[in-house]
Amino acid sequence: MDKQTPITVAEGDGIGPEIMAATLYILEEAGANISIEKIAIGEKVYLSGHPTGIEDSAWESLRRTKVFLKAPITTPQGGGYRSLNVTIRGALGLYANVRPCVSYNPFIQTKHPDMNIVIIRENEEDLYTGIEYQQTPDVCQALKLISRPGCERIIRYAFEYARHYGRKKVTAFTKDNILKISDGLFHKVFDEIAKEYPSIEHEHWIIDIGAAKIADTPAQFDVVVMPNLYGDIISDITAQMTGSVGLVGTANIGEKGTMFEAIHGSAPRRANQNVANPTGLLLASILMLVHIHQPEVAARIHNAFLKTIEDGVHTNDIFKSGVSREKVGTKEFGEAIVKRLGEKPQQLTPVDYQISQREAWAHHGTTVITTKRVLVGVDIFIYSHDAVDTLQEKLLSLNSPSLKLTFISNRGVKVWPGGIPETFCVDHWRCRYESQGPLKYQQIAAFLHALADARFEVIQTENLYTYDGKPGYSDIN
Ligand code: NAD
User: CA-CA distance, 206 to 190, in Å (whole number)?
Assistant: First the structure.
């Protein structure tokens, strides 16, 4: 027998221990070749003084096994507690979040009988870096960071996933009609990488109409890749569309670790009643088995699960009279699956995992881009209660030999030159200064000094660069 693969397991809070017990029982009965290291995470750990909900000693296990099967946890109410998932994703570099969302028609009620989508969400960047500021009494800012290596890794992962799982199409969702630079980079990299996979169809949708289309006709989509925030929202919608949030599992994949979990939370009100549906965690554990190269066990469990669903043995959340035959608890649902190990579904499509390697296939180096980068100006953000006419007069009275004020905008709307009185303004002004010749940062710094001497309150600056002659900053609307 092959050596057992060590995995780290956390039972979590609320319904966590019950759904984990059912899942581990099925894995054991199916012959999963794993050895389990248990760690404590969640509410008790938070309340014992660990702001991230995980003890230092637990990291040793995660670093050693690199495979984490995690039940949901309860984040205590009140301030100061950091999201455990965000902490683990960041610390282990889990850049890809993979969520297969499948309907089980006609056995589980859904408005979308033909749905079989995999959402691949970028997991580390975008608005989730958590960099936020209240810059003025009126205005708060959150930083949306999109990097080329981040885009390359997640988009290549999506195409590799499609290739290895026999999927036909990869779709990208962005909002690059508005976010031309940040989401524009994601779209650009998507088009570049798609060229490396000519046998896989590819398409891009603007997120708003793409989301509407996915809600209406999910069967039109196959693998869908998107930046973090859109992926967070869309993958919850597509999971719910399958019939219950209890039905979807997810894999978080990185080069140095992995985490597998149900998408739902700890459902505290359902805890200790043997009513929770363990499917989400079970399907996550199947993703884990494929990842640790035990595809036969994964398929055995998955097919027994499909047969159980098909036989109408359902937990409370998916039970429907007339369709379901037997309402069972968490434990009995697990036992029903174990009873069917070795069987295949008759109407639902059986699964057959033929993934021959660990997911090393997904991780490639990223491209080093060489461009000519030239400093051409600066956007200076000023906190002021002045009216725009007063502000521009004061600013124009300050001469800079190298920088010229070209416009002032407020919340993205140009208010000088050529503004209109109807524009509602807040206390946060963007003043664009462009260079009248070659520019050095020292000249910007000197001008900032002059602004400070003139009692302007500068709250933020953004240097303006061109890349191979093209502006790397947004123009005014
Ligand atoms: P939730 O997902 O726990 O519950 C939402 C609804 O779905 C509830 O009605 C619940 O009873 C039901 N539900 C969820 N999972 C179910 C299952 N397996 N079987 C049957 N019904 C199920 O979301 P919530 O109520 O917003 O959050 C509860 C707690 O979970 C909070 O403390 C939250 O912070 C935490 N949470 C944790 C994770 C995680 O650990 N990954 C994710 C989301 C929420």
Answer: 13
